[in-house]
Amino acid sequence: MNDQSQQIPSKEQILSFPRFENLPLNKIVVINTLEQCHEISEELAKATLLGFDTESKPTFTKGEVQTGPHLIQLATAEKAYLFQVSPEILNFLKPFLENTNQLKVGFGLKNDLHLFRKKGVELHRVIELSKLFSSFGMTSPLGIKNAMALLFQVHFPKSKSISTSNWAKKNLTIPQILYAAADAYAPVLIFKALLDLNLIPADIIKITTELGINENKSPN
């Protein structure tokens, strides 16, 4: 790998950057029925690279058991799918989440592995992006906001009020929908940018070659 050592932009610099251009609402699908799942099943099955994230209703009381994830986000470079979790929808998603022919990329996924295992789902071919920035001189994991600033010089807003909102409710707000979609869409752009820069570790490159992901490196 090439040495791309450089500083993470400061908070002030990040705020001065252009705002991240998220997917438009008409490219974000909120799914809460099996019928909707079956409607997008074929297009989801064709994706070899998926951005991946989850959201859970926060727990504020000591001893309160986490029942999430309540929302599962999958995204391509063109579309985001937000699945409001039920036993039936989780059962529909299980083959995708366990599929070794689909690469899932995201940030902060350690807890997701634990939550899914408790629900009988073993995540396969999941890549934690926060640890792929050592070639930039980063010795600690990098969050999605700083990764977007470093690679694209854009401001990727992260609202604490939205992140800690109730993700288990039936009707998500527009800010929740946009926030959730961005957290799955951005990892696709980040992974492809690292791929274009030849900064993906050899073991992951082997997987992308097997799946044909690096045949077309551009995210567009």
Automatic annotation (TrEMBL):
SMART domains: 35EXOc (SM00474). GO terms for molecular function: 3'-5' exonuclease activity; nucleic acid binding. Pfam families: DNA_pol_A_exo1 (PF01612). It comes from the Bacteria. GO terms for biological process: nucleobase-containing compound metabolic process. SUPFAM superfamilies: Ribonuclease H-like. Residues 28-199 form the 3'-5' exonuclease domain. This is 3'-5' exonuclease domain-containing protein.
